[in-house]
Amino acid sequence: MRTLCYICSFHQPRIEEMSMLFDTDQLEVYRETGYVIVDCPFPADLTARALQAIQRQLIALEDNTTDTRGNHYRLAPQIPDSYWCALDHSLPFLQMELHDEIVELARQMVDDRDIYFRNGGINELAPGMSFVWHRDSGEEYVEFMHYFSGSSPKNGCLRVVPSSHVGPVDELMADVERRRKTERGSADVDRTKSDVELPGEVSLSLRPDQLLVRSSKIFHATWRNDSDEGRLMHHWLFRAAHEADHRFRFEDYLTEELVAALSEEQREVLWLGRDFPLSDKWESERQRERGQVRWGVL
Predict the structure, then answer these.
(1) Residues 6+ apart with CB under 8 A from 34
(2) pLDDT of 1 strictly over 70
(3) If you compute the radius of gyration of the chain from its CA atoms, what whole number of angstroms results?
(4) What is the C-alpha separation between 222 and 193, in angstroms, rounded?
(5) Which of 61, 89, 128, 266 could form a disulfide with 295 if both were Cys (CB 3.0 to 4.6 A apart)?
């Protein structure tokens, strides 16, 4: 198992003081490896408020009977069989997602000022569970990931194959299946175990004051969470205006109180009141969520 060390080496991102934009070295690391780690631009007290909001929303394990997505542990979905809990786009989470410097970084990465906030989400990896090797999407976009209480191999931190965001991952997936058969006797997926180790993979241990910026196409998995608590991760993404991938209209999901708490610049990237087509892929989910899934000021 190879754990990320914060020293200079070929595949190690350099941790530097954040500015409004990535510097040349950070961009080079991202383009070469598919990820870069930087200091969080938002203040620590915002993370503290987010953790407090989570504590207020936690429910007993025996009461979380509607989480069929395996996305949460003690955070109940707003409606059964949904990825959305009460926190995903509430304050203070939206204030992190739409922080001024985050928005500027997103604009830099797509080389376009006209971007929209696509969505965010809270992922809570349960004890004894992992995520297996996969690629999120065939489309290229930048994802921001923040591990509130830190991440390590013990609690299920991210594992990546550097530079796997370029080209197909068919050979990597075939290697995973071969190794499963050789080491476990079956190529079947088993989320109760850490997936097989791959040559050159890197474990991304992160502090609560660090932010992972990665490609949607990087090949990744997690270690099994061997701690006693759910491992909390907050992730979100933006898209360029010409990329028609809208999940929903935020005015249908956010309370007026929440919208009023945002700055004009933050409301701009939510595309409130702007006319655009919604992705057909999510039409059935939108119908199910209408009037049931809402985010506000907690």
Answers:
(1) 160, 162, 163, 164, 165, 166, 214, 215, 217, 218
(2) no
(3) 19
(4) 10
(5) 89
Residue 267: in which H helix or E strand, if any? helix 264-270
Q: Reduced to 3 DSSP states, what percent helix, strand and coil does the chain have, rounded to the nearest 5? A: 30, 20, 55
Q: Domain for residue 14, yes or no?
A: no
Number of domains the chain is built from: 1
Task: Look at the block and give the residue holding tokens 């809402």.
Answer: 294
Containing domain of residue 214, as a range? Answer: 24-243+256-270
On whether the CB atoms of residues 37 and 145 are closer than 8 A, the answer is no
In a domain, 228, yes or no: yes
CA dist 14 and 106 (Å) reads 19
The backbone region for 150, taken as left when phi is positive above 0, alpha when psi lies in -120 to 50, beta otherwise, is left
Asked if 116 and 269 touch (Cβ cutoff 8 Å), the reply is: yes
Render pLDDT for 109-144 as a digit per residue (tens, 0 to 9).
999 999 999 999 999 999 999 999 999 988 999 999
| 111 domain-assigned | yes
